[in-house]
Amino acid sequence: MEPLDVELEDGELELPTDPMLLNMGPSHPAMHGTVRIVVELSGETINKADVQIGYLHRGFEKMCERGSWTQVFPYVDRLNYASPMLNNVGFALAVEKMLGVTVPERCQHYRVLLGELARICDHLVCSGAMAMELGAFTPFLYFIKARDMIWDIFEEETGARLTNSFGRVGGMADEPSPNFKEMVRTTIPAVVDLITDGENLLLENRIFLDRLEDVGIIAREDAVALGWSGVVLRSTGANYDVRKHHPYMTYDRYDFDVPVGQKGDNYDRFMCRQAEIKQSARIIEQALDMMADEGPVNVDDPRIILPPKEQVYNTIEGTIQHFKIVMEGIKVPAGECYSYTESGNGELGFYMVSDGSGTPWRLRIRPPSFASTAGLEEMITGMMIPDIVPTFGSINMIGGECDH
Amino acid sequence: MSKVVLKRLEKRFGEALLSTHDQFGDETAVVSPDAWHAVALFLRDDSRCQMDHFIDLTAVDYLGRRTPRFEVVLHMRSMQKLHRIRVKTPIDLGPDGTNPKVDSVVDVWKGANWFEREAWDMFGIQFEGHPDLRRLLMYEEFEGHPLRKDYDANKTQPLVEYREGYEKLAPFGLPEGMPFGRQVHDRWKVHVAGRQTEGDTNILGFEED
Which chain B residues are closer than 8 Å to A14 by Cβ? Predict the structure, then answer.
């Protein structure tokens, strides 16, 4: 075959030494379909990076300003779609803080139980996807199988596997099903076994470890100034967990530890997640013992909670009450409030401004992975291209909440 | 716990601290926009405050309810002392409807970078001193700021035309930087089957009809 550069004179074909711009995503398997990273490369090293989000922007906050407070629940489900129940509970707590009501103890344990199950799912998806992006497909299948077992519980409890929309202001949509406790008790050991199997495939795997250890290091001070929270912050050695430091619901009554890392690299983030799953399992065990089998789940407050259907159909008071709550919405006192909970990724905050009507004047979500993704640019600068994949995987960017 | 912080702010800033309240248990300080940056710096560096953990920065549009119309809201907490505080500043549109302006706090907490970009994108608040105030969630061609109350939620905007030029997408201020595919360098001479194409976009050398 004839060479392409037949007429080439000596030294005329120069290799370009200028920095090269490379575009990753949004349609890139490792970018989860929602992030675009433009990197300026010198060889394989990243000189500059520009992380661009917004491909999943759905105008969530604008939508919330159009409906009632209760109508926000399906939207918050779609914030962090890896753990919708935690968002549900977080939002319910935020509105309850403004209303000044506290749900019965049985409901608090129930919320903790469902929330911790959702947290396990969240961490499993993140760790599994991260391993899969590095070529380890088997652990992903183990983790997803474990998640599916938890989803079976959710299906039994809420009727939905993914977007539960199960939280309500002042309680839950329904009370625990009769065999809820038994189901959780039998599922959790099986889930932990599967996770241990999956971990064993990874943690002695040289390829996996080489791509995690000492990659994507971030200093503690940087992480704090960047506004990180949750696992990504704790991996740097900073001990901050909303459940421990600003306890809400019944978290001050459970005995659990907060795993922290040392270096803040990908390995620490992965291990913190795995350790947290075990802690969640511990919390679930204790909450199961503490949760009463009988008792009310919803607060007894006709301004907030829909009356039972029997009353709605048979009494005029019940009909009016139902109509008022559905058509006008729950009247939240005027003012502003910031409420925060520990979601799968860190501190999920709701900053809400109410004008006293049934519609939020402003509902701001403080998504934890928004702050983490903002720090990605700093982390990947100076690294090599292949390091982007595990680093991006380990911060657990969830498009729904990050892009609002 | 954060009552201490409010007292410190009152002592240090006096007049510039417009009001304080602790509605629903959240300690809040309303400061004048001129003192915005100084307050942020003080809160971070003061030994009794140590507000090193940046939490949130956003804005609220009180169209028809309050003047000044906008409020920039900042949340932060201290890793050491575990207290939290909210600081707000009221700002209004400029004299001829120009965007409201307030100092950027990116140099105080670098995490504020994206949060300020988002506030600019959604509310059109201009953060002066921000290193890179581009739109974050919406695209460059988008007109208006969607979370303002006078932006109709049903409004639609035309589809963006295919971007031919490079300048729209260049992230680092490189006019020639097209992040897609290869770019044509002046010095890069491509020789294909004896034919020399210089500065030609047909870089792979496909035969042209």
Answer: 187-188
